[in-house]
């Protein structure tokens, strides 16, 4: 009697290695964080500039030597009370060139004058300028030099908060609106910013138009910090997951105990 001989069974195909869903999840977290960081840095590079204020014209709002964070103007309206950065050489009667930061007190169509009861007036309305310096220079005769100017369309009238030491529109004439390149939104940097609250002095006097109020930098900081946290957590998760996967594969390759 003959026994039937069968060929040996073919070896089982190797199991395909599946991508760990945990690894994929941590990878998504890392990429999301990188996207948030890149988005915030892109906004900072495109829309903000740092400007170190050299003089005392804006004291005490911006002290000499402080770094100001400037929102780059992209056609936004310029209103009374705005702290603006501009090309100093664009004054009607410039005395120097380079960037400067001063406060807009009158825009096209306004009549600005000094001084009614010791106060600035715009279109006959007295302005209570609580932001002005109160040091010794506040009582300098130059701080209350009389003037009367009509500002035409496309122009602004700018003054320093330290009136006794500022070289501004009182002496150098009006400034073309086109020369305004940005708005000062605070002192410091994007990540360590001390915001400057927009003044209500002009709207309180009944004049239309509120100063520029930045609503981007706070959200951008949270995007950056949140994105950085996601990147850190994601990288840690990826490393831990890869270590665990490698350990499982080593144990599988060693075979069952006692073999």
Describe this structure in words.
The structure is a single chain. The protein has 259 residues and is of the alpha+beta class. The chain has four helices and twelve strands. The chain has two domains: 21-44 and 220-247; 53-213, Umud Fragment, subunit A, CATH 2.10.109.10. It has helices at 21-47, 169-172, 201-204, 217-254; strands at 48-52, 67-72, 83-87, 99-107, 111-116, 119-122, 125-126, 147-150, 155-159, 175-176, 180-188, 193-195. The strands form two sheets. Strands 1, 2, 3, 4, 9, 10, 11 and 12 form an eight-stranded antiparallel β-sheet that branches. Strands 7-6-5-8 form a four-stranded antiparallel β-sheet, with no helix packed on it.
What labels describe this entry?
single chain; 259 residues; alpha+beta; Umud Fragment, subunit A; 2 domains; eight-stranded antiparallel beta sheet; 4 helices; 12 strands; rod-shaped
């Amino acid at each position: 009697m003959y026994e039937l001989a069968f060929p040996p069974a073919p070896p089982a195909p190797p199991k395909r290695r599946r991508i760990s869903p945990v690894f994929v999840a941590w990878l998504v977290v890392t990429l999301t964080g990188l996207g948030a960081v890149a988005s915030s840095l892109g906004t900072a590079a495109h829309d903000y500039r740092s400007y170190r204020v050299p003089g005392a014209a804006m004291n005490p709002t911006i002290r000499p030597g402080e770094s100001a964070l400037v929102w780059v103007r992209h056609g936004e309206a310029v209103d009374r009370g705005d702290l603006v950065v501009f090309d100093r050489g664009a004054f009607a009667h410039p005395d120097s060139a380079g960037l400067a930061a001063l406060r807009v007190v009158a825009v096209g169509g306004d009549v600005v004058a000094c001084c009614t009861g010791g106060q600035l007036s715009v279109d006959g309305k007295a302005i209570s300028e609580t932001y002005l310096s109160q040091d010794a220079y506040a009582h300098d005769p130059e701080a209350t030099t009389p003037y009367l100017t009509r500002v035409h369309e496309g122009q602004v009238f700018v003054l320093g908060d330290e009136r006794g030491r500022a070289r501004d529109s009182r002496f150098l004439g009006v400034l073309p609106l086109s020369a305004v390149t940005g708005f000062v939104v605070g002192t410091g940097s994007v990540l360590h910013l001390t915001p400057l609250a927009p003044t209500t002095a002009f709207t309180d006097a009944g004049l239309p138009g509120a100063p520029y109020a930045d609503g981007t930098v706070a959200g951008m900081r949270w995007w950056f910090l949140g994105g950085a946290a996601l990147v850190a957590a994601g990288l840690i998760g990826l490393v831990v997951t890869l270590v665990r996967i490698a350990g499982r594969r080593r144990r599988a390759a060693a075979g069952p105990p006692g073999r």
